[in-house]
Amino acid sequence: MQKLEKRIFASDVNESNDGLAGYLLGWVHEVRDLGALVFLILRDITGTCQLSLRRNELSKESLSELEKISKESVIMVDGVVRAEPKSRLGAEVKVMSIKVLSKSVEPLPYDVVGKVKASMNTRLEYRILDLRRPEHRAIFLIGDTVLNACREYLRSLGFVEVRTPRIIATATEGGASLFEVKYFDKIAYLAQSPQLYKEELVTIFERVFEIGPFFRAEESHTRRHISEFTSIDIEAAFSNYEDVMDILEGLIVHVIMKVLFERKRELELLNVNLKVPRRPFLRITYDEALRELESIGIKKKWGEDFTTEELRQLGRKHLGFYFITHFPTDSKPFYIKPCESNELLSESFDLMYQWLELSSGGTRISDRALLERRIREKGLNPSAFNYHLKVYDYGMPQHAGWGLGFERLLMVLTRKTNIRETILFPRDKFRLMP
Ligand code: ATP
Ligand code: MG
Prior knowledge:
Elements: E1 21-33, E2 37-44, E3 47-54, H1 60-68, E4 74-83, E5 91-102, H2 120-125, H3 127-130, H4 134-156, E6 160-161, E7 167-168, E8 180-183, E9 186-190, H5 195-205, E10 207-215, E11 228-237, H6 241-262, H7 264-269, E12 282-285, H8 286-295, H9 308-317, E13 321-325, E14 348-353, E15 356-363, H10 368-377, H11 386-391, E16 399-405, H12 406-414
Parallel strand pairs: 3-5, 6-10, 12-13
Antiparallel strand pairs: 1-2, 1-4, 2-3, 4-5, 7-9, 8-9, 10-11, 11-16, 13-14, 14-15, 15-16
Helix pairs in contact: 4-6, 4-12
């Protein structure tokens, strides 16, 4: 088959392109065989379109290719776009010739068109077919825009993208939920966050960010935890928690505006009505959150982190993005700075969307003696942090930062309630494949 000059994409198949001739490449999404007439739905990166083939107008070669057609086969067709009021998009492609480039098996183990509802487990088992569904692929096209928008925004504020080690010798925040790896004749660990490295790097670049995978051996099987997730992290010198909360707010707004601009079609596919949130986001303190819970009959001991049920209750009251600030110092990691006016409280915050925690951050301790004390108070051994502590002797400015879970942000933007939907190949306690 001769390749014509121009590739036509599914999104080109509309009335205004009536008469456009070229070739199309893609996957067979659906087949409707009426005998003399065959309709195929072709899927490519831009969406789906209808192809119509008249058996009596096809060559012998094309007819024998047509016999091989099965759902998800990769095909190439030559054809002409024709306005067709009866077809869904007001146009279709009249096919002149067809070739099967890669034939798929029949029957497929998973229905890509989605007429048969599949359980999450089945979906993940056949993830590569599941991702072919346009509304599932859309999540990751939005994700692509999110990552670009984050980089664009942070760079515009002078942040430098860095890459810190994934293989580390000691735990950042204590040993729980660390994965061990055999490292030659030693035991090493997979990093849970870039925390200590990003803090050290503010002494070099002042403002750093990192986007990358981190690992947590989460024992609890929830809809918001996976063992390998992507974190968007920043750390900024000469800044406190309020400065970086402003940056986080600005980033969320920029990301949403970009998604609205670049991914209109994907949002429609997902049936998501996304709105740009108004700044500043609501800010409530930990103590205020406690009082809110008390007013609905939930008495909570001061000092503890919120349980999932408590977060759900708070989420019922706060419908969009909001911050919870000033957590008890002891509920936060050792590097978080206690408030000067009251050491029991810390210069910390979580960014929430309804019940879901998206980000944690705060001002960091920049004084070595205090940091050592906090490490000890957390039951950790300062000597395990020797390399890190030395950095504080070499000139350490006040600094602050946060870590934002990429897959959780994507859950919010695509209105998904299980984090396994917003990562291509999820890893959890029970799933290591595919
Ligand atoms: P949670 O309380 O929800 O378990 P965390 O407070 O332990 O989260 P942080 O250490 O504050 O998590 O990490 C910063 C951000 O990274 C979190 O707000 C979240 O968005 C994301 N994150 C942390 N752990 C996971 C995980 N296991 N799976 C997905 N995202 C995660
Ligand atoms: Mg947190």
